[in-house]
């Protein structure tokens, strides 16, 4: 069969709380407070296509891993939970695949103004969305499903504490204006330990990075330190200033 080139256009873009790949949860639902807004492209006039979706609690989002940086596909990948081990890409949910297409089931919070507000998202801000489908429990929930190598691998690795400086900053932001519980969101995100394997170190080759880490969440660079199994949130920096100092567009 002659391979075809298939062309698709995004139907929507996801605005999410995560500014970069680092820090974004590895699967949907792991950080239940992680928020996103899937905004349909106004020029496509898709509002009527949302009719009836309000009866569903969850949504499949089919999207493009547009922030992948690697060009060449590798058949075996290093999933973080295998701690240095390799496995076939099709036995993983790695973003690095022959066609960089992702699939996430997220919770629908609200549908309004040509947009779907969701939670539990694992997409980076600005992700192009190719399709949306309702999660249909009678078809999608498979009671006898097996989890292969993911069974017996923990999802949460770290305990999270906050410095007084970080707590004061979070407190000063308040909860007005629809702001969610930022402390809970930071905790849910860091418990998962976003660091790739080579940042964490492996037995015999310990963590080479003893300094601090940071991840982009909403308008902040959340700076933290890891000691053993404990992550301490040190401070919240202004994201734009941080990104500018790094010489990057925000
Ligand atoms: C392991 S993938 C799983 C995504 C989806 N649930 C799936 O199974 O296809 C999740 C990771 O993809 C990365 N990611 C999310 N959105 C991305 C994007 N638009 N481009 C590139 N990488 C992205 C983040 O680092 C996140 O931790």
Q: Would you give an account of this structure?
A:
- The chain is of the alpha+beta class and 250 residues long.
- 14% of the residues lie in helices and 31% in strands.
- The longest helix is centred in the last third of the chain and has 10 residues.
- It contains 5 helices and 14 strands.
- The chain starts with 11 loop residues before the first strand and ends in a 5-residue tail after the last helix.
- The protein has a 6-stranded antiparallel β-barrel with strand order 1-2-7-6-3-8.
- The chain folds into 2 domains: 138 residues, YaeB-like (Elongation Factor Tu (Ef-tu), domain 3), CATH 2.40.30; 92 residues, RelE-like (YaeB-like fold, 2-Layer Sandwich), CATH 3.30.2310.
- S-adenosylmethionine binds next to strand 6.
**Largest sheet report:** 6 strands, antiparallel, barrel
Helix count equals 5
Widest beta sheet: strand line-up? 1-2-7-6-3-8
The bound ligands are: S-adenosylmethionine
State the end-to-end distance.
Answer: 44 Å
Keywords for this structure?
single chain; alpha+beta; Elongation Factor Tu (Ef-tu), domain 3; YaeB-like fold; 6-stranded antiparallel barrel; 4-stranded mixed sheet; 5 helices; 14 strands; 14% helix; globular; binds S-adenosylmethionine
Task: Lay out the secondary structure.
Layout (H helix, E strand, L loop, with lengths): L11 E5 L18 E6 L17 E7 L11 E2 L9 E2 L12 E12 L2 E5 L7 E8 L2 H4 L18 E4 L1 H10 L8 H10 L5 H4 E2 L2 E2 L6 E5 L2 E8 L2 E9 H7 L5
Parallel strand pairs: 9-14
Antiparallel strand pairs: 1-2, 1-8, 2-7, 3-6, 3-8, 4-5, 6-7, 10-11, 12-13, 13-14
The chain binds S-adenosylmethionine (SAM).
């Amino acid at each position: 069969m002659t391979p075809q080139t298939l062309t698709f256009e995004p139907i929507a873009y996801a605005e999410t709380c995560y500014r970069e790949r680092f820090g974004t949860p590895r699967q949907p639902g792991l950080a239940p407070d992680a928020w996103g807004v899937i905004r349909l492209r106004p020029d496509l006039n898709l509002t009527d296509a949302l009719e009836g979706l309000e009866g569903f609690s969850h949504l499949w989002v089919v999207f493009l891993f547009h922030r992948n940086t690697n060009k060449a596909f590798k058949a075996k990948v290093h999933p973080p939970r295998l701690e240095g081990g390799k496995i076939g890409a099709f036995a993983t949910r790695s973003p690095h695949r022959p066609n960089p297409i992702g699939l996430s089931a997220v919770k629908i919070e609200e549908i309004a103004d040509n947009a779907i507000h969701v939670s539990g998202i694992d997409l980076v801000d600005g992700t192009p969305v190719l399709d949306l489908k309702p999660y249909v429990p009678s078809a999608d929930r498979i009671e006898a499903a097996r989890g292969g190598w993911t069974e017996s691998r923990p999802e949460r690795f770290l305990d999270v504490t906050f410095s007084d400086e970080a707590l004061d900053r979070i407190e000063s932001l308040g909860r007005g204006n629809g702001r969610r519980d930022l402390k809970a969101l930071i905790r849910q995100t860091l418990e998962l330990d976003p660091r790739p394997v080579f940042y964490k170190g492996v037995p015999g080759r310990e963590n080479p990075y003893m300094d601090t880490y940071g991840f982009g969440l909403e308008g902040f660079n959340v700076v933290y330190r890891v000691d053993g199994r404990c992550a301490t949130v040190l401070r919240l920096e202004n994201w734009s200033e941080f990104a500018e100092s790094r010489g990057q567009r925000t």
